[in-house]
C-alpha cells in the first residue's frame, strides 16, 4: 500500500524549509521514527523522522529544494513493512487534539504575529522551534515537547487564594494569549480583570503603547537538562546590573574603528621615566597615558564626550572630562572614574588609577566614584588579544578598547623593522559620531602615543 | 505491538477523569489500573465508602438526638453485615458504572500493572497473566497515594488497621484507638463512635485537624468531646503490643493520666496521613523526576521533566484530594491537546465530613497570619439563623477572609451541618474574585443555611440583619 509522507507543521510561523540532505533513497527500508530529511528553517536545522515503516518507492524532494508544510516528500510502500506498522492508519492522520486551534479567541492570532521585540508573550513557541531538534510526523508538531512546557517555567506559580483578581475563564483566556495577568490593569470592582481588559491590554501592546514595561521579556530558554547536567545559579547583583546595562547600551547603533599605535618610543620612555612616576604612587602604564591622551583628544573632538537626548532631540555636550576605566574584579566588571583627567599629570592619573583599582577589587568603591564618566577606556591587553569590539557605556558615546602590544614587522623606508605595536579599538555611537570623525579621533590618539608633541600642535 | 495516543496509569478520580475527557476530545485512550473497574482509592476505599458509613452514623446520631424534640426511638440494633453490604453495594454500583462509561467512550481499559520501559513505552503485566507492550505518545501518571505508616508502630496484627482496613468494617469493636487527629481519623472515628465503639483519639500536635483555622475546629472539638471517649492532644503513641485480648498501647504526653498512658484496645486505626505512589516501575527509564517528599515533579501544566509524560493527583503533591486530581486531569489533557493551560486554582476546597462538617477554601486566617498579610475577618454565627435553629443545629459559624483594601473575598471557612455543600459557593466567590458586596447583594434563599454566607458579608459592612455588630471604622 502506497502512503505519502507530508512535511508536518514545524512550529509557529514556520511554513517552509530548505532540504539540506535527503537521508534515504528509493528502495530503502525505513522504520518509524527514522530520520528521513534534514531541513533548514529560518530558525534551526532539524531532522524530520518518518511516522511510518515501509519501503521508499519515490523521493519527491532533493537537497536544495524548498518544501512547504503539507507537501509530499516521500512515498512509502507500507505493505511490505517488516514490522507490523504500529500505526496502520496511513497516511498519518493528524490526531484530533492537534486539529483543535484555541477556540473562540480571535485575539490569539494577532497576538502571535506580534513582533518579537515587543515583549513577546513568554509562552509563545519560538522556543519550540529552537529546541525541537526532531519533528514528529505523526503528531504534526515540532518535537514532542508541547507548548505547555515552555509556558510554565518562566512565570512561576501564582499565589494560591489571593492571586490576580480574575475569573478562571479569564485566566484561561490570558494563558492562551500568552498574557501575564499581573501586568493587566483590571477595570472591574476591586481591580477585577475581565476578558475585555485582557483584550485591551493586548491591543495596547500591539500598538506599541506600554510595550516595553520594565525589562524586555527574553525568549524562554530551552530545557538544557535534556542534553546533560546543568546548574542554575542566581545572578550576582553586579552581574545583573551589568547584563541590564549592557542590554540597554547595545540598543545604540555601534561601529568599531581599529588602529595600531607604534609604542616603541613610549616603551623606551616608560623604561626611563617609570621610576619617577612610581614615586608618585602609581605605575606608568599605557592606560594611564591613554587617560591623559584621550582627555586631550576630547578637547579637540568634544562630541566624544556628549550624550544623545532622543526625548528632546538634543545632544548634550559635557564640559568636564571624567574618564571611566573598566576594572576586572573577582566580583565582576566595575568602572571607576578619574575626574578632570584633562587637568592632571600622567603621574597623578597613574596614582589615582592604582588607588581606584585596588578599591574596586576590595569592593570599596563608592557609587559616586563610579558616576559621571564621559568616556571609557577598557584595557584587555594584560590578558591578550589582537582587537575586540567594546560596547559603548551608555549614556556615553564612545569607548576605547586596548589590546596587547606585540612586536611586529613594520615596513619602514625599504625594509621591515621590528616595532612594538599597540592595537586600539574605538567603538562609538554612530548617532552622534560620524565614521570620519572616529577615524580622526583614533588617529589623534595613535599619533599622540607615537609623538606626544602632536597633542600640542 | 499496540500503540495509543494517551495512556493513563491509575484509574482513580484523576485517572478516569483524564481518560474520559481525553476520549471526549477525540483522542485514542488507554487506561491502566490494577482493579477490575476504574474508581481508585476514592471509590474503592476512600471518599465514597466512608461517606456511606458517615451517612449512617448521622442517622443514628439524629435518631438519638430526636428525644430532645419529643420523639424517642429505641436503641438501634446494628447488623454489621448488612451495613457492610450497603457500603459495598454503593462502591460496586459506582465502579461498574465507571466501567460502563469507559466502554461507551471507547477507552481501552486494561486491568494490570504498568511499568515504563522507556520515555514512550510501557510494559503492562495484565491481570490475566499476559504481558503486553504499549507505545504511547503521551502518558499521564495518576497512581495516587497510600496510607502512611509509622516506623516502629507497624506490628503485624489484624487488630491494627489503616483506613482501608477500617472501611472494611470487620466488626464493631468495643474500644478503638485512632492514631492521628486529621480528617481521616476523625471521620472514621466518628463512624465507629456512632456504631457504639468507645473511641480514643491521639494527636501529636496541640489541636485536631492541624492546618485548619482554630475557631472552626473548636465547634467540632466540642462535639467530638461528647461523642468520643477520649481526645488526647500533645500526645504520642510510643508502642503497640499484641496481647491476647487486644493491643497494648503506650502513650506519652503532657498531663496524661496513668490510665491514659497504658491501655488495651480492641482495635487500632493508624491514620497519620498518606504518601504518594511515585515508585512507578521503570520510571528511571524516563526523565521523570521525583522530589524530596516523594512527589513527582511537574510544571504548571502538570508535565513532568520528561516531555510528553504528565502526572496528576496525589502523586504530585498536596492537597491529596480527589477534586484536585480531577481538575488537574483536565489541565493535563488540555495541555496534551495543545492548549496553553496551567493548574492555577485560587481555591481548592477542603471538607472534613465529620458532624458538624468543617470546610474551607482559598486563604485561611491561619495562612494570612503566617504570611503577615492584612485581612479582615467577618463571621456570622449560625445560632442567629432561623434555619439553623429550626433544625436544632445552631453550632456553627461562617466566616469570610477579606482583603481590607479591595474588599475582595480571599477565603471562606465554614463549620456546621452541611458545611461541605455550602463551601462550593465560597469557591465560586474566591475564583471569581467576588467582593464582599457581590456576596451581600446576591439574594440567598430563605430559610437556608446558605444565608450565612450573605449574612457574613453583611457583618463585614456592619449591618447584618440577624446579628448586631458595631459598624466598621
Explain what you see.
The complex is a heterodimer of chains A (457) and B (473). Chain A is an alpha+beta fold and 457 residues long. Chain A has helices spanning 96-99, 108-113, 126-131, 147-152, 168-177, 195-206, 237-249, 264-279, 286-300, 346-361, 435-450; strands spanning 2-6, 16-22, 29-30, 35-40, 45-49, 54-59, 66-68, 72-77, 135-136, 141-142, 254-262, 306-309, 314-317, 323-325, 327-329, 332-334, 337-338, 375-379, 398-402, 406-412, 415-429. In chain A, strands 11, 14, 17, 18, 19, 20 and 21 form a seven-stranded mixed β-sheet that branches. In chain A, strands 1-8-6-3 form a four-stranded antiparallel β-sheet, with no helix packed on it. In chain A, α9 packs across α10 and α9 (286-300) packs across α11 (435-450). Chain A is extended, with a radius of gyration of 31 Å. Mean pLDDT of chain A is 77; it is low at 81-161 and 209-216. Chain B has 473 residues and is an alpha/beta fold. In chain B, 32% of the residues lie in helices and 25% in strands. Chain B is built from 14 helices and 21 strands. Chain B has helices at residues 15-24, 40-45, 47-65, 80-104, 163-167, 183-195, 214-227, 258-261, 322-336, 365-371, 386-390, 419-431, 436-441, 451-461; strands at 2-9, 29-33, 108-118, 121-126, 131-141, 145-147, 160-161, 175-179, 198-202, 230-232, 235-243, 246-253, 262-265, 267-270, 274-276, 309-311, 350-352, 357-362, 376-381, 397-402, 409-416. Chain B has a five-stranded mixed barrel. In chain B, α3 crosses α4 (80-104). The longest helix of chain B has 25 residues, at 80-104. The model of chain B has no long low-confidence stretch (mean pLDDT 95). Chains A and B meet through α1, α4 and α5 of A and β1 of B.
Amino acid at each position: 500500500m502506497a502512503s505519502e509522507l507530508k512535511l508536518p507543521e514545524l512550529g509557529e510561523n514556520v511554513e517552509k524549509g530548505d532540504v539540506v540532505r535527503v537521508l534515504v533513497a528509493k528502495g530503502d527500508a525505513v522504520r518509524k521514527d527514522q530520520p528521513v530529511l534534514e531541513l533548514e528553517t529560518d530558525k534551526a536545522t532539524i531532522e524530520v523522522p518518518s511516522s511510518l515503516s515501509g519501503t521508499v518507492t519515490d523521493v519527491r524532494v532533493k537537497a536544495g529544494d524548498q518544501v512547504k508544510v503539507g507537501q509530499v516528500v516521500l512515498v512509502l510502500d507500507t505493505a511490505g513493512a517488516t514490522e507490523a506498522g504500529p500505526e496502520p492508519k496511513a497516511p498519518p492522520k493528524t490526531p484530533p487534539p492537534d486539529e483543535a486551534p484555541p477556540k473562540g479567541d480571535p485575539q490569539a492570532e494577532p497576538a502571535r504575529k506580534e513582533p518579537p521585540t515587543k515583549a513577546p508573550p513568554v509562552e509563545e513557541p519560538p522556543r519550540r522551534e529552537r529546541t525541537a531538534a526532531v519533528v514528529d510526523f505523526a503528531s504534526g508538531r515540532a518535537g514532542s515537547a508541547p507548548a505547555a512546557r515552555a509556558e510554565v517555567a518562566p512565570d512561576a506559580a501564582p499565589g494560591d487564594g489571593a492571586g490576580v483578581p480574575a475569573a478562571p475563564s479569564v485566566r484561561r483566556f490570558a494563558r492562551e494569549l500568552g498574557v501575564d495577568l499581573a501586568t493587566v490593569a483590571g477595570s472591574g470592582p476591586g481591580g477585577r480583570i475581565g476578558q475585555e481588559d485582557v483584550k485591551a491590554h493586548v491591543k495596547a501592546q500591539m500598538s506599541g503603547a506600554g510595550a516595553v514595561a520594565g525589562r524586555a521579556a527574553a525568549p524562554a530558554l530551552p530545557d538544557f537538562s535534556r542534553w546533560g547536567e546543568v546548574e542554575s545559579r542566581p545572578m550576582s547583583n553586579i552581574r545583573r546590573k551589568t547584563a541590564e546595562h549592557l542590554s540597554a547600551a547595545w540598543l545604540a547603533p555601534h561601529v568599531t574603528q581599529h588602529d595600531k599605535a607604534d609604542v616603541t618610543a613610549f616603551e623606551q620612555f616608560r623604561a626611563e621615566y617609570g621610576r619617577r612616576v612610581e614615586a608618585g604612587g602609581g605605575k606608568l602604564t599605557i592606560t594611564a597615558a591613554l587617560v591623559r591622551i584621550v582627555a586631550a583628544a576630547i578637547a579637540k573632538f568634544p562630541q566624544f564626550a556628549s550624550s544623545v537626548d532622543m526625548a528632546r532631540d538634543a545632544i548634550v555636550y559635557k564640559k568636564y572630562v571624567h574618564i571611566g576605566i573598566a576594572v576586572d574584579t573577582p566580583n565582576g566588571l566595575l568602572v571607576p572614574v578619574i575626574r578632570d583627567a584633562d587637568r592632571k599629570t600622567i603621574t597623578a592619573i597613574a596614582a589615582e588609577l592604582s588607588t581606584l583599582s585596588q578599591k574596586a577589587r576590595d569592593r570599596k568603591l563608592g557609587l559616586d566614584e563610579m558616576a559621571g564618566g564621559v568616556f571609557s577606556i577598557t584595557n584587555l591587553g594584560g590578558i591578550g588579544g589582537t582587537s575586540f569590539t567594546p560596547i559603548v557605556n551608555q549614556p556615553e558615546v564612545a569607548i576605547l578598547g586596548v589590546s596587547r602590544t606585540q612586536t611586529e614587522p613594520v615596513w619602514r623606508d625599504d625594509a621591515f623593522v621590528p616595532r612594538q605595536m599597540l592595537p586600539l579599538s574605538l567603538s562609538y555611537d554612530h548617532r552622534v559620531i560620524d565614521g570620519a570623525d572616529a577615524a580622526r579621533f583614533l588617529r589623534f590618539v595613535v599619533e599622540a602615543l607615537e609623538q606626544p608633541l602632536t597633542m600640542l600642535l | 505491538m499496540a500503540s495509543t495516543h494517551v495512556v493513563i496509569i491509575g484509574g482513580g478520580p484523576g485517572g478516569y477523569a483524564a481518560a474520559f475527557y481525553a476520549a471526549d476530545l477525540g483522542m485514542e485512550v488507554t487506561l491502566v489500573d490494577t482493579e477490575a473497574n476504574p474508581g481508585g482509592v476514592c471509590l474503592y476505599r476512600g471518599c465514597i465508602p466512608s461517606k456511606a458509613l458517615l451517612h449512617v452514623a448521622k442517622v443514628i446520631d439524629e435518631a438519638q438526638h430526636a428525644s430532645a424534640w419529643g420523639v424517642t426511638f429505641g436503641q438501634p440494633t446494628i447488623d454489621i453485615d448488612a451495613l457492610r453490604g450497603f457500603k459495598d453495594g454503593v462502591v460496586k454500583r459506582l465502579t461498574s458504572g465507571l466501567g460502563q462509561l469507559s466502554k461507551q467512550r471507547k477507552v481501552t481499559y486494561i486491568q494490570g500493572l504498568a511499568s515504563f520501559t522507556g520515555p514512550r513505552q510501557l510494559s503492562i503485566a495484565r491481570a490475566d497473566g499476559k504481558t503486553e507492550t504499549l507505545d504511547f505518545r503521551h502518558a499521564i501518571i495518576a497512581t495516587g497515594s497510600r496510607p502512611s505508616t509509622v516506623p516502629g508502630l507497624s506490628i503485624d496484627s489484624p487488630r491494627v488497621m489503616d483506613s482501608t482496613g477500617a472501611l472494611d468494617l470487620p466488626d464493631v469493636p468495643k474500644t478503638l484507638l485512632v492514631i492521628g487527629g486529621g480528617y481521616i481519623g476523625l471521620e472514621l472515628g466518628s463512624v465507629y463512635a456512632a456504631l457504639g465503639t468507645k473511641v480514643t483519639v491521639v494527636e501529636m500536635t496541640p489541636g485536631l485537624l492541624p492546618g485548619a483555622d482554630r475557631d472552626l475546629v473548636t465547634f467540632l472539638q466540642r462535639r467530638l468531646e461528647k461523642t468520643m471517649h477520649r481526645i488526647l492532644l500533645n500526645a504520642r503513641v510510643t508502642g503497640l503490643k499484641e496481647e491476647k485480648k487486644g493491643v497494648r498501647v503506650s502513650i506519652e504526653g503532657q498531663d496524661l493520666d496513668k490510665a491514659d498512658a497504658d491501655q488495651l484496645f480492641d482495635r487500632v486505626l493508624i491514620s497519620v496521613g498518606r504518601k504518594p505512589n511515585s515508585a512507578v516501575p521503570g520510571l528511571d527509564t524516563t526523565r521523570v523526576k521525583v522530589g524530596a517528599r516523594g512527589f513527582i515533579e511537574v510544571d504548571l501544566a502538570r508535565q513532568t521533566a520528561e516531555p510528553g509524560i504528565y502526572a496528576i493527583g496525589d502523586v504530585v503533591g498536596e492537597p491529596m484530594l480527589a477534586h484536585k486530581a480531577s481538575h488537574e486531569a483536565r489541565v493535563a489533557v488540555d495541555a496534551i491537546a495543545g492548549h496553553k493551560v496551567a493548574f492555577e486554582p485560587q481555591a481548592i476546597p477542603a471538607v472534613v465530613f465529620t458532624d458538624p462538617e468543617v470546610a474551607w477554601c482559598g486563604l485561611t486566617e491561619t495562612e494570612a497570619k503566617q504570611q503577615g498579610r492584612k485581612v479582615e475577618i467577618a463571621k456570622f454565627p449560625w445560632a442567629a439563623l432561623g434555619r439553623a435553629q429550626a433544625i436544632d443545629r445552631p453550632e456553627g459559624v461562617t466566616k469570610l477572609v477579606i482583603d481590607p483594601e479591595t474588599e475582595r473575598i480571599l477565603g471562606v471557612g465554614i463549620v456546621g451541618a452541611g458545611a461541605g455543600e455550602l463551601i462550593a459557593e465560597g469557591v465560586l466567590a474566591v475564583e471569581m474574585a467576588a467582593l464582599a458586596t457581590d456576596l451581600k447583594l446576591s439574594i440567598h434563599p430563605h430559610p437556608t443555611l446558605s444565608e450565612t454566607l450573605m449574612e457574613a458579608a453583611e457583618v463585614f459592612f456592619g449591618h447584618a440583619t440577624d446579628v448586631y455588630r458595631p459598624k466598621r471604622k
